[in-house]
Amino acid sequence: MTSESTSTRQKILETASQLFYKKGIPNVGINEIIAVSGVAKRTLYRHFPSKDDLILEVMQHRSAQWLCWFEDAITNRGKTAKERLLAVFDVLEEWYVNPEFLGCPFINAVLEIADASHPAHHVSIDLRKAIRTYIMQLASDAGVDDPGSFSQQYLLLIGGASLMATIEGNPMGAQYARNAACVLMDAS
Fold first, then answer.
1. CA distance readout (Å), 118 to 51, 99, 121
2. How far is CA 103 from CA 30, 33, 166, in A?
3. Which of 113, 134, 166, 186 has a 20 to 30 Å separation from 25 between CA atoms?
4. Greatest C-alpha distance within the chain
5. Which DSSP category does 152 fall into?
6. What are the backbone angles phi and psi of residue 184, rounded to the nearest 5°?
7. Model's pTM, two decimal places?
8. Is the dihedral of CA 148, 152, 157, 163 positive or negative?
9. Which residues in 124-140 are b (16+ Cβ under 10 Å) and which e?
10. Cα separation of the two ends of the chain
């Protein structure tokens, strides 16, 4: 792929990502993506043969970006594994209060695409698994007795905070979850 082709592909991905996030995946058509990105229909279809292919690529792209941001933000906020486990909720709260936050794009995608077999649905599941692996490693490093069970319980707190922010528009779930995580860590 030439650098121009890569740049065009990236432009389509970014445009579709922004439109899907702002308007919802089912509410954005290929013609709107073409108009906003300024590419020809043929060019879009050369890179993405169908809307489903584009949705999948957008979700994979977003997932990789988000996970990198999330892990870097946590690493930068804590020196020890325990500090990093608690920093998770500070990072999430900062994300939730950002004026551009329109809900968790991965929760949104699962809700918008009712078909659980759709590949984009699996991207959200894979992201959850990656977060769980990261939390499990932090829990192990922090000396938690059963990092596997702890990571599942911790993910419930993350999910609850994210749902509260996404559905209710309330970022306070992050602090409620942080308080519960302190109790959970003390019990481990």
1. 12, 30, 5
2. 23, 21, 4
3. 134
4. 58
5. H
6. -60, -45
7. 0.89
8. positive
9. beebeebbbebbbebbe
10. 51
Q: What is the DSSP string of 25-56?
A: GGG--HHHHHHHHT--HHHHHHH-SSHHHHHH
For 103-138, what is each residue's pLDDT tens digit?
Answer: 999 999 999 998 899 998 999 999 999 999 999 999
Write out the two tokens for 137. Answer: 């490693």
Task: Give the chain's domains with CATH numbers.
Answer: 1-49 (1.10.10.60), 56-187 (1.10.357.10)
Q: Is 146 left (phi over 0), alpha (psi -120 to 50) or beta?
A: beta
Structural contact between residues 53 and 9, judged by C-beta atoms closer than 8 angstroms = no
Instruction: Give the integer Cα–Cα distance in Å for 64 and 142.
Output: 25
